[in-house]
Amino acid sequence: MLNRRQVELKTVPQMQTMHRAGLVLHRALDAAVAAAVPGTTTAAVDAVFAGVLAEAGATPNFLGYYGYPATICASVNEEVVHGIPGDRVLQAGDVLKIDGGCIIDGWHSDSARTVILGSSAAGTADPEDERLSEITRQALWVGIAALATAKYVGDIGDAIDDFVSSQPGAPLGILQDYVGHGIGTAMHQAPDVLNYRSKHRGPKVKPGLCLAIEPMLVRGSLETDVLEDDWTVVTRDGARASQWEHSVARHRGGIWVLTEPDGGAAGLAAHGVVPVPLGE
Questions:
Q1: Which residues, 6+ apart, have CB-to-CB distance to 62 below 8 Å?
Q2: Calpha distance 1→19 (Å, rounded)
Q3: Is 152:200 a contact under the CB 8 Å cutoff?
Q4: What is the structure's pLDDT at 1?
Q5: Is this model's pTM higher than 0.85 or not?
Q6: CA-CA distance, 165 to 249, in Å (whole number)?
Q7: How far apart are CA 178 and CA 203, in angstroms?
Q8: Which one, of 28, 64, 63, lies nearest residue 48 by Cα?
Q9: Considering the domain boundaries, does residue 6 fall inside one?
Q10: Residue 200: what pLDDT?
Q11: What is the mean pLDDT of residues 116-127?
């Protein structure tokens, strides 16, 4: 069911605090991505991420969330989201999704990246997996760019869907059971942020709206299952999946990507959108 709770609109100082949390998260994800090499475990990647948060004095928002036992979600290959880090040893060719967040002064950040261990050029990765990740990453920036001019939250899903469906080559599926969300004083808030076209337009976009936009694409069927750990979501047909995510603010001056040091300038340049710093 779509989330119909009231949307929390933020002040500029509140969004600035969210950006501080986003910068810590960005550093933690950088470190986690660097640690994700063949031969290491997903638990070791989690530990690296947790160490950066601890050094910065930030609180992990995944740890303990409805009993979740780790600071990141580490989802490998057919695991789409919510994979629990553990003793799984990463291999060349794996598709790893690292999703994490943190809290500073009560305000949340949330972001995710897909890591391909190896490369198609070296023969250690499937080029179709690289294509999957790249289209998902581009779809994220299409959605963020759409927020700059969106009248309704549903405009984001329209833009993502149009982009993904227009790509040449084997069609990719957009998961519908797992979507983006509002973010602020809680990690998950209203509204739901769909990654696909729907008759549901969602709420109007207003200054102070902060969203976690996170397209999740698969190479096969959209059908998923949850494993016995009650967390890990896997594709039913075993097809590989990708997830990319950023937390983004729409303010009176424009948009600002809260989980990027440059506010999203590099990612938005191809879309003709210039992010505006908070307070300007």
A1: 68, 70, 71, 72, 73, 99, 100, 101, 187
A2: 30
A3: no
A4: 32
A5: yes
A6: 26
A7: 19
A8: 28
A9: no
A10: 86
A11: 95
